[in-house]
Design brief:
Oligomer: single chain
Distance between the termini: 67 Å
Strand order of the largest sheet: 3-34-33-32
Strand content: 35-45%
Length: 484
């Protein structure tokens, strides 16, 4: 009897080992998901394959795997047998003389997760038609889109790399790289902050504080700073994540330095310091340019508070306590109107609607409501017709903005991201699925779903020029989302 049991245990153990080995060979590893618990996630990129892929593009002048729908078996490029080093300055690729920017900033033109253009809402059963799919480097940044190009920042081996891709084909047009590797065992390695596009230039921030202004046409360096070194600041546990914000002739970043160097504005053309303010330890939320109380201002959420700053010196107009576990504020504020702001945070914190009042330049803030119905961990909510839609931890929820009342909570999408377009929610799940949900307060209605990319996906999706762009720490892809 004991011998029989021992044989059965041995068979189970051997089977388990073989199964794990199979997953390992398939590119699956054990890692932490958005809940902070161990789970199966995709392996880091195969850098040899990535470099060979880009070398093949340059040599052949061809594009990534085309066509078909997302559910089709169209492969990603077969890599060349020998990896090739990526040059720092590939030859410039001509672009149209008139450069438009349908998605110039993190989460769109206003950093609010709203797509300005109409999208297709009758998705085929096997998914949106795929335009291309290819390897990408590590990191959690999203894309910005301008002039028919998509820009992002990645980790490739021991370098942070800003890359420009042809929007239609995915072909890499140029890269700008520097030595630097942000490694973090819980969340994962690589840069976090989405670049910012403005007037033909790209403003990019690496996870270790390297801040560069690049020519968007060629990738040529215009100026650089390290915002941590320049402001005597200590890096955050999960790296620099706040996207640079263009404000008039300046670009605003959040190094979190002491002695008035927490928020810093540099001249956007030269990199010279214009002003700095606050002593706050920063968090992971990007600054926003908004109008509240009739006054144009910069809204910042630090590790302990939300506040409004003047655009020409960083003077505090108003503040509201907003502290969570270890100062981990990530979600973007949502403006309801000229005087109300929605705030949210995970780690069992919750949400609040605050009212900001300006009476002859005397500012005051009061809490309208506060509850735990919408806990945006490292995602952000979107607003439509008086209702907030977002991921309450890992479950999609709808909350009435006026009252904080929960209308519904359904659909487990993991710790993914939400985008609003054509009165619908485009949800990019933590596992790389794309889901279409009708945005309505009456009920949760999922209309379509398909697998877009594989592996842990915390990056924000983008809709620009009729294309849906998605990426994670291993793959990037584009789909045709134009209305039919």
């Amino acid at each position: 009897m004991l011998r029989t049991i021992a044989k059965a245990v041995a068979v189970v153990l051997v089977g388990g080992v073989l199964a794990i080995a199979g997953l390992y060979l398939a590119g699956v590893r054990v890692g932490l998901n958005g809940s902070g618990r161990p789970g199966f996630v995709s392996a880091p990129p195969d850098f040899n394959a990535l470099e060979a892929d880009r070398a093949r593009q340059r040599q052949e002048g061809t594009s990534p795997a085309p066509g078909g729908s997302a559910g089709s078996s169209a492969p990603v490029h077969e890599p060349a047998p020998i990896a090739a080093a990526l040059p720092e300055r590939p030859a410039p690729i001509p672009t149209p003389a008139s450069v438009d920017a349908p998605w110039p900033d993190f989460r769109g033109s206003h950093r609010d997760g709203r797509g300005a253009e109409a999208i297709r809402t009758d998705w085929p059963r096997d998914g949106l038609p795929r335009l291309w799919k290819q390897p990408v480097g590590l990191g959690y940044a999203s894309f910005v889109v301008a002039g028919g190009r998509a820009f992002t920042i990645e980790q490739r081996r021991l370098q942070e790399v800003v890359a420009a891709y042809d929007l239609q084909t995915g072909r890499e047009l140029w890269i700008s790289s520097w030595e630097g590797e942000f490694a973090e065992s819980m969340g994962g390695n690589g840069p976090r902050a989405t670049p910012t596009y403005h007037a033909g230039r790209l403003y990019t921030l690496g996870a270790l504080g390297e801040f560069r202004c690049l020519d968007a046409q060629t990738g040529a360096l215009i100026w650089r700073k390290n915002i941590l070194d320049d402001n005597s600041a200590t890096n955050l546990d999960w790296g620099m994540a706040a996207s640079p914000l263009i404000v008039d002739d300046t670009v605003v970043v959040l190094p979190g330095g002491p002695r008035g160097k927490s928020v810093v504005a540099y001249n956007k053309d030269t990199g010279a310091r214009v002003w700095s303010a606050l002593d706050d330890r920063q968090a992971y939320t990007s600054p926003m340019l908004v109008t509240l109380g009739g006054v144009r201002q910069i809204v910042v959420v630090t590790a302990t508070r939300a506040l409004g700053l003047t655009t020409n010196g960083g003077r505090v107009l108003w503040e509201y306590p907003w502290s969570t576990y270890s100062g981990i504020n990530v979600a973007q504020p949502v403006l309801l109107d000229d005087h109300r702001v929605f705030l949210s945070a995970g780690y069992d914190h919750g949400a609040a609607l605050i009212e900001v009042t300006n009476d002859a330049d005397h500012w005051s803030v009061r809490t309208v409501w506060e509850n735990n119905r919408m806990k945006n961990k490292f995602t952000s909510s979107v607003l439509l017709n008086g209702y907030l839609y977002g991921l309450d931890e890992s479950i999609l929820a709808c909350v009435e903005a006026e009252t904080g009342q929960l209308k519904w909570k359904a659909g487990r999408y993991g710790y993914g991201q939400v985008l609003l377009a054509s009165d619908h929610l485009v949800v990019l799940t933590e596992d790389g699925d794309v889901v279409l949900v009708r945005a309505m307060p009456e009920r949760h209605e999922e209309l379509a779903r398909f697998s877009a990319i594989e592996g842990k996906t915390w990056n924000h999706p983008v809709v620009a020029d009729g294309k849906l762009l998605v990426r994670n720490i291993r793959e990037m892809a584009a789909f045709d989302i134009r209305p039919k």
